[in-house]
UniProtKB/TrEMBL annotation:
Signal peptide: 1-19
InterPro entries reported for this sequence: DUF2884 (IPR021307)
Protein name: DUF2884 family protein
Keyword Signal part of the UniProt annotation: yes
Keywords carried by this UniProt record: Signal
Protein source organism: Stenotrophomonas pictorum JCM 9942
Amino acid sequence: MKIPVAPLFALVLALPLAACGERPQTGAPGTDTALGQKVRAATDEARKKLAEGNISISKDGGAKVEISPSGELLINGTAVPLDAGQQALVMQYRAQMVKVAEAGIDVGIAGANLGVNAAGEAIKGIFSGNSGQVEARINAEADKLKQQAQLICDQLPALMATQQKLAAAVPQFAPYAKMDQSDIDDCRSNGEFSAP
């Protein structure tokens, strides 16, 4: 699963949609644009699937590894027998993965809104001659989004620690516990994290 944390990527994706007729809605600051509302509707469905469905951990080497909402660790559809302590670790790991994914969803929505708003502001700036002020406002919003995205990266050390504990406690899971420090470093430097 790819979790986007680079807000400018969302901006680039949103600009073509803005050019195709999506316009920001008027309303209170921070409200979703029309595109943001569409993205939010799609992401509400993704949040529901995160809460109610299995979370895929790996499809490495043909093995399909998932965690169910009830804390079952499934490898190729077969539940791995777990004691209470192991299941608690599985549930902790699942909860942390959901939290990271939901943070990525929030950044995606904010990025879509920023992209549409930036396109509208740029057009206004051209006609008003205030492009410098517009650019400053857009950059300030993009900086806020970058900070929000970095909060995702800040969650990764705890996720990796739980993954390592789970790998030590459940040997069947160990081959699929592939997150390492380079993933955290890549998140902070490149703005993207490949979930384990």
